[in-house]
Design a protein that fits this description.
Elements (H helix, E strand, L loop, with lengths): L5 H19 L6 E7 L11 E10 L7 E8 L3 H9 L2 H24 L1
Antiparallel strand pairs: 1-2, 2-3
């Protein structure tokens, strides 16, 4: 069924992308609903990308929802081009995937 408005089209596209990402990671269940929340403590803090908490609900209601942290570019084409040129997403992903876990482990060894 084709989406009937711009918002529905965007939701349809997002649902398809998240479903694909879940399947790539071995989660084959059909997605029913996606709810995005901008983290309150990060509002206004974004310089190059936006942060979102994503709740994924499945068609099979006996399954617990999945909660994701998502980063994306802003809708401003000039800002997006600049961010891509500076490889901002690569730098942010290494921060979240490499630095934070290492820092957490270091803090655990110091705090006991």
């Amino acid at each position: 069924m084709a989406p009937s408005s711009a918002d529905q089209a965007q939701q349809f596209e997002l649902k398809a992308k998240i479903s694909k990402a879940l399947k790539t990671n071995g989660i084959m269940e059909e997605v029913n609903e996606i709810i995005m929340h901008e983290p309150e403590h990060l509002k206004g803090e974004h310089m190059a990308t936006a942060s979102w908490y994503v709740e994924v609900k499945f068609k099979n209601s006996s399954l617990k929802p999945k909660y994701l942290f998502m980063k994306n570019y802003f809708n401003n084409p000039t800002q997006t081009a600049m961010s891509k040129g500076m490889k901002i997403m690569d730098k942010e992903s290494s921060f979240y995937l490499e630095f934070l876990p290492t820092a957490r482990k270091f803090c655990e060894t110091r705090m006991g």
